[in-house]
């Protein structure tokens, strides 16, 4: 919305003036309308200068804007150019007008002691007659000076001065609006840049803390994730509770082209049956007393990924609505009558056998095959026991960092006990155990006695299939492979590799010597 400037007595007299003045006023009104519709500052300044030249029958018009921070006036050198002229705001007739707020009319500028000849020397222009008025904001603050140069019919008149003042008042409003809009655009761009950076950092978090493991099964999972991440197809992730299905889903999302868009997660088992549809698809205002309009997870994930955890716990009614949303690529809010197009890739996870659920009639077969375009299975921790030392070290390093305490490690007998335990809770259970140790153990080497009773009991009852020496060899072998893999991933940069491994550079060098790892070899 544009603001209007109060009409002064001088302006009222101009409105009643006969002949050429009426023509000038019509021209002035047209210029004001055009100015108020232009929001780009550079284009606006060109427009004002060009139209003012015609209105005032002058050879040239210039707008000088005040840069208070630097104490300078600045102006474009010529119409249609990007060259900016800057000079001390105390200099020249424009400077005098901007500082005093008083208009100045001179017949021969070169005879006026306030004239700043350096501008003519810079532009190659010769100024004779000159009229300058202040540019004032609506609150009276001066933001610059407005000059017209070399009138075609001689000197500028008092009537010219009143017309230029009226035009300057409107020009100041238009310039202020354009500057505010430009400031808002720059603020918006800054927010978008910061948002992109935050998303990149969040994505980096999941790309630098991926699924950890050197076993063949985990390596196969990582390879498959690399292959399917940029695919547009839905993915079904299966595996026991605690195997890292959610970590796999986030890794897929942040490795995909959708990484800069939302990742929205929903645990289907944690939502009451009566609320599932509203959570998935949203709800319209007034469906029930006090209910406000709210978008669902699908709309929130538009352009990105929606992770439906424990999808095997969805009711048949909810499954039917989900299937329709997948087929139509659109949803309807609860209580709504309008289809809303949604582009969201689905990553669904379950710890159930959906094949068995289909046979029992508790899961729709058509939905099952819709979701299982791509299938990723997460192995149980007992299937990848060789990864337990590596996982434990990784988790311990992470938790010690979060707790701001010195690095810790497990004694060989403690690691042996962890490897003999069946881990019904899988990686989640291991993570909880390591977190407990990081919080409660004061030593830097965690003894077997610090482990949970269930783990120690199982270890004591188990008949070891390998001696302590063999376990030590396994740990050493895993450590060597981890160092080699990390060096390769870091381009053989030892500083980066040491940081990734949670070691000092000197500590990494010692281990490389111990395992006879060639720093330059791939």
Can you tell me about this structure?
The protein is of the alpha/beta class. 49% of the residues lie in helices and 15% in strands. The protein has helices at 9-15, 20-36, 41-55, 92-100, 117-123, 158-208, 216-228, 245-255, 273-281, 297-300, 316-328, 354-360, 365-371, 388-402, 412-420, 426-440, 453-461, 468-489, 494-501, 505-514; strands at 58-67, 72-76, 84-88, 104-106, 130-136, 142-151, 235-238, 263-267, 282-283, 294-295, 305-309, 330-331, 340-341, 345-350, 374-377, 409-410, 445-446. Helix 3 (41-55) packs antiparallel against helix 6, helix 6 crosses helix 8 (245-255) and helix 15 (412-420) packs across helix 17 (453-461). The chain is elongated. It starts with 8 loop residues before the first helix and ends in an 8-residue tail after the last helix. Residues 1-8 and 463-469 have low confidence and may be disordered.
- The end-to-end distance, rounded to whole angstroms, is 66 Å
CATH homologous superfamily designation of the largest domain: GAF domain
**CATH-derived topology of the largest domain:** Beta-Lactamase
- CATH A-level architecture of the largest domain: 2-Layer Sandwich
Radius of gyration: 37 Å
**Strand percentage, roughly?**
5-15%
| Mean of residue pLDDT values | 84
**What is the number of E strands?**
17
Structural class: alpha/beta
Poorly predicted residue ranges: 1-8, 463-469
Largest sheet: 6 strands, antiparallel
Overall spatial form: elongated
Count of folded domains: 3
Helicity range: 40-55%
